Amino acid sequence: MSYGGLPSWPPLLLRMDEPEIGTLTHVRIDELSDCRIILRIYDGKTGYLGYLVFDDNEFCLRVYDLLKRHVGKPVKDIGDIEIE
Fold this sequence. Notes:
21% of the residues lie in helices and 36% in strands.
């Protein structure tokens, strides 16, 4: 996964101050034209907000669908999934 030649995984994360341990808790796309998936991830007592950006809308939707199916699962497990 990349955008503009830079890797998109792992996502850039920003602290939100809501607890949960290493778990993906929310995934959304605000505008498909941006090719950006917004994530909420919690690790211990720190919450993070991050995003993934893509050059390809179709691939963005495939990743979004995959991530929606994995909400509530550890980020480590999600990172090990191969996307074709």
